[in-house]
Design brief:
There is one protein chain. By secondary structure, the chain is an alpha/beta fold. It has one domain: Rossmann fold, CATH 3.40.50.12710. The chain is about 35% helix and about 20% strand. The protein has 19 helices and 18 strands. The strands form four sheets. It has a seven-stranded mixed beta sheet, sandwiched between helices. Strands 1, 2, 7, 8, 9 and 10 form a six-stranded antiparallel beta sheet that branches. Helix 6 crosses helix 7, helix 6 packs antiparallel against helix 19 and helix 12 crosses helix 14. The structure holds S-adenosylmethionine.
Length: about 525
């Protein structure tokens, strides 16, 4: 045990981080807070669709397809086979652009907005990196996320989710996870809820929302022994009978297609992906932005980008946020939405030195800033802009509850105690202890997952519903009137106190993370 204690006190080795790993063409500054990618050559002040040599995709060099290291031998072998097949298929088909994509581009006059390209290469059910289920999440996959590092993430998050569920009072409840990936977080949370809050769990169902058939198949396998009633649904299906509960979106909104915008020196233009005559792909400047997008830029203070943003300065807008948040809101009658993702404040997101936005590509634990390579094989992802998420959420019927950096939230939820507790554990192999310690430290490391944001939003029954005040709470008058619904809820308040004892018993003594005033 002495050896264990000493080793546990050593600084962690640096992990490759999905989000902070500099690719060959990018670097992060010492604080890890901003990208200092070199500013690329200016785009020509284009007539629409002028090719930009600096951002084209050359004929693809054969990638190093190394099987992922790790203990999941069978999974790794199957994964390597898939990768080899994919690569062979692409190589045989074209120089840089697979046939399916070339045909789509040709059908669209040879070019499409970047947002459409991103949607195809990520979410196309047959060819997309997520849609096909080709991407794998975890240490032995293409990139790691917090839930794939260890089940401690779910252990720390569970008391917060349980508190929000308990606040909803009696009756059936749902824990809805959007974009569950490999299903690790859903599986771990279900186990935590049943273990820590059995009475609450007895009236909870788990609902998973994921458009990727390939990933849903793996989620079914991962959750084969789920102790909660479990189903898969779309938001549209849930909207037919909206649920009361908590929605969790961990690293989901970063996968929504973004619109790339380029300043050409005198106007803002949409960036397009174009099929080149030689079969490769190019990023080109397209049409001037439409009025709605210009209004968004005006709201961000970017109507005039100023002298610090020269021609060729490029960033992203997030047109998919509001529809997604509206669909999600329609699925929830009453409850909380927790978005966990990497995000910047607008001032940081659109800072002059971030001259190529935040878009990154990930595959086989490697990061790259080239979104055009091997389409359909790489994860493409962009940060969220905090103000844009908040505006989209408010416009979609959500009320902002609060926000925290992940590191702060997890410390408030007991991460330090959990870390300390590792040293008290007997009979666990040293290797496992060290891995658990590294995963915990990585969750709070500000240069890794600790800088992620937790954004919470609430949805209440419609304002003015009989017997409710503007915030959706039961009014004293309604309770005094003897209205059965109001009386039920009064009774629920009493039960909530009782349930709170259950919560206190299972939760760490530190306060839950949401203690600050609403965002807006
Ligand atoms: C980066 S992975 C995150 C997986 C998991 N949450 C994790 O953290 O390990 C993104 C997930 O979101 C899913 N996804 C993509 N678009 C979505 C959408 N519009 N609605 C719900 N899920 C979506 C993908 O299929 C995938 O499961």
């Amino acid at each position: 045990m002495a050896t264990v204690a000493i080793l546990l006190c050593q600084p962690p080795r640096l992990w490759r981080s999905r989000r902070r790993q500099p690719g060959p063409a990018s670097a992060w500054d010492a604080s890890g807070l901003s990208s200092v990618r070199p500013i690329p050559p200016a785009e020509p002040p284009a007539s629409p669709a002028v090719a930009l040599p600096a951002t084209t995709s050359p004929a693809i060099a054969s990638p190093a397809v190394a099987p992922p290291a790790g203990h999941e031998a069978d999974a790794a072998e199957a994964w390597a086979e898939t990768q080899a097949e994919t690569w062979a298929e692409i190589q045989a088909e074209s120089r840089g652009c697979p046939r399916w994509l070339a045909e789509r581009l040709q059908a669209a006059s040879g070019r499409v907005p970047f947002r459409i390209y991103m949607d195809w290469v990520l979410h196309d059910p047959q060819h997309g990196a997520y849609g096909s289920g080709r991407l794998r999440i975890g240490r032995a996959g293409d990139f790691s996320t917090a839930p794939s590092l260890s089940d401690d993430f779910a252990g720390l998050l569970a008391p917060q989710l349980a508190a929000w569920l308990l606040e909803l009072g009696p009756g059936p409840l749902a824990l809805i996870e959007a974009g569950p990936g490999e299903g690790d977080l859903a599986a771990d949370l279900a186990r935590e809820l049943v273990r820590g809050w059995p009475q609450l769990a007895a009236r909870c169902q788990l609902v998973l929302v994921d458009p990727s058939a390939g990933l849903v198949e793996r989620q079914r396998q991962r959750l084969a022994a789920c102790p909660l009633p479990l189903r898969w649904a779309t938001f549209a299906q849930l909207a037919a009978a909206p649920l009361r509960g908590v929605v969790l979106a961990h690293e989901v909104l970063d996968a929504l297609p973004v619109e790339r915008i380029v300043w050409d020196g005198s106007r803002w233009r949409q960036q397009l992906v174009q099929l080149r005559p030689d079969g490769g792909l190019a990023l080109v400047a397209g049409e001037p932005l439409a009025a709605a997008q210009l209004a968004q830029l005006a709201a961000l203070g970017l109507s005039d980008p100023g002298p610090q943003r020269p021609a060729g300065w490029c960033s992203e807008l997030h047109p998919g946020l509001e529809p997604w948040l509206a669909d999600c809101a329609a699925a929830v009658q009453q409850g909380t939405l927790l978005v966990i993702d990497y995000a910047h404040e607008a001032a940081r997101y659109y800072a002059p030195q971030r001259a190529q936005g935040t878009l990154m590509a990930y595959r086989q634990q490697q990061a790259s800033s080239d979104p055009l390579q091997q389409p359909g094989c790489w994860d493409l992802t962009a940060h969220l802009c905090l103000e844009s998420v908040e505006a989209a959420a408010l416009a979609s019927g959500w009320r902002a509850l609060g926000s925290r950096r992940q590191g702060e939230a997890l410390l408030a939820l007991g991460l330090a105690q959990r870390l300390h507790g590792l040293q008290q554990q007997a009979g666990i192999p040293l290797q496992q202890l060290l891995q658990q310690r590294e995963a915990l430290l990585r969750l709070v490391d500000p240069a890794a997952l600790g800088d992620f944001r937790w954004l919470a939003f609430q949805r209440q029954p419609p304002r003015g519903a009989a017997g409710r005040d503007a915030a959706g709470s039961v009014t004293a008058a309604a309770a005094a009137s003897g209205d059965p619904a109001a009386l039920n809820e009064q009774a629920a308040l009493g039960k909530r106190v009782a349930a709170g004892v259950e919560l206190t018993a299972a939760a760490p003594t530190a306060p839950l993370f949401l203690r600050d005033p609403p965002l807006a």
